[in-house]
Design a protein that fits this description.
Length: 425
């Protein structure tokens, strides 16, 4: 057994010496993938219910994605934003059509999209002040929120562990209790330039916000000219069964951020906004060297076109609905399951304790099914959109077995693969 793991072990040893120790990786070395399966160095297949934290939405080795990468890689990889290339406008058109928003700024990651959103909200308030309106520079964000790792993004991220070591971070952020409309109304004033919301919190434990809360945020922003910022980095681009999670609510934000599934694994982010908000950025005020390059744009176009051609949204609604129903079935069968939440293929199963969630994720990993634990007690499912019912059935059968074992407590999960700590999304 030991010699077959030499490659993983030598990589682990090298990483321990050479890398900043920011991640607690699960000891698996993946070398390939196909459809909803990842393959390790020994050729063993894993059913992937996480898709690299909601990124590989069309799964692995998708022919349309491979073709887009191959074609574009032979033509041109980079131009910088000093020049035009043929795919920027094509992709922006698609994104504005599906979002209901007017304009797009491209970047390279989620946190960068969020950072652009914060800067735009500040600049927009500045513009309104110059026009004689009374509006300040503060932000409201929601408890349990996650918006990224850069200094502006961590300032709006609720978890202490992500923010406290880096203080002072961007000042002027106050947190509102999740779904507490009264708290939102009490903390909102014309000092606020932006309200930050995830329609469905991801890292916070797969928590859809209530209609009342989202609508109240929209109405408060309308009353002063503040912007409503929807972070759709995890929930956007089909994950919940609509192109954007805010579309379930009938609320249009002023800004929406996208990233994870946008280029199916190549790094890419986007900030979308209204014409009104877009007025605040003049040439030179914001920019990026790599953002919106020809390769990632070509791939994102392939992602969106493939999703449209194969009606992926209905598939996500149908398989996601079935998955959630089967998770409800598990909740009825096992006392240790305390809640089932989510929409489409963004689902969470809450367990009674952190320990249970850790062991459940490890138990699934032993059965070669990849799930992730987030917000301490929640098993998170962000599978590729191409998941089928037969995969759900296999996952549910495995989970049933794992939960039964944990529930009975008589069988310790000896030799379980450590699940690692919370995700690092
Ligand atoms: C993952 C995530 C981010 C950060 O994206 P990165 O690409 O890791 O910078 C921000 N907001 C939400 C809601 C996310 O899920």
């Amino acid at each position: 057994m030991s010699e077959v793991h030499t490659k993983l072990e030598s990589i682990q040893a090298a990483e321990r010496k050479l890398l900043l120790q920011t991640y607690q990786r699960t000891p698996l070395l993946f070398v390939g993938g196909s459809g909803v399966y990842l393959r390790d160095e020994l050729g063993q297949e894993y059913l992937d219910l996480l898709s690299g934290i909601g990124v590989s939405a069309l799964g692995y080795a998708h022919p349309a994605i491979e073709a887009a990468i191959a074609t574009q890689s032979r033509k041109l990889l980079h131009t910088s934003n000093l020049f035009y290339h043929e795919h920027t406008a094509e992709l922006a058109l698609r994104l504005t059509e599906i979002s209901g928003l007017d304009r797009v700024f491209f970047c390279n990651s989620g946190t960068e999209a969020w950072e652009a959103a914060l800067k735009l909200a500040r600049a927009h308030a500045g513009l309104l002040r110059a026009e004689g309106r009374k509006i300040g520079t503060r932000f409201l964000a929601v408890e349990q929120s996650f918006h990224g790792r850069t200094v502006g993004a961590v300032a709006t991220t609720h978890k202490e562990k992500y923010r406290a070591p880096f203080e002072p971070v961007m000042p002027g952020v106050e947190f509102v209790r999740f779904d507490d409309v009264e708290d939102l109304r009490a903390k909102f004033s014309n000092e606020v330039c932006g309200v930050c919301i995830e329609a469905v919190q991801g890292e916070g434990g797969i928590r859809p916000v209530s209609r009342e809360f989202f609508a109240a945020a929209r109405e408060l922003c309308n009353s002063t000219g503040a912007l409503l910022l929807a972070d759709e980095i995890q929930s956007g681009l089909g994950r919940t069964g609509e192109w954007f999670a805010y579309q379930h609510y009938g609320v249009l934000p002023d800004i929406a951020t996208l990233a994870k599934p946008l280029a199916n694994g190549l790094p890419m982010g986007a900030m979308l906004c209204t014409e009104e908000a877009a007025r605040a950025f003049a040439p030179g005020m914001h920019g990026t060297t790599f953002g919106g390059g020809p390769l990632v744009c070509a791939v994102a176009i392939a992602v969106i076109d493939t999703m449209k051609q194969t009606d992926v949204l209905s598939h996500v609604r149908s398989v996601g609905g079935y998955f959630k129903e089967r998770l409800e079935y598990l909740r009825r069968r096992h006392d240790c399951v305390t809640a089932v939440r989510g929409m489409g293929l963004m689902l969470g199963l809450e367990l009674g304790s952190e320990d249970l969630a850790t062991h459940a994720a490890a138990g699934m990993m032993e059965r070669r099914i990849i799930v992730n634990r987030t917000s301490e007690t929640v098993l998170r499912f962000l599978p590729p959109y191409i998941l089928e019912r037969e995969h759900v059935d296999r996952a549910i059968a495995a989970l049933d077995e794992v939960l039964a074992k944990l529930g009975s407590k008589s069988t310790a999960l000896a030799g379980a693969v450590p699940a690692g700590e919370d995700s690092h999304g």
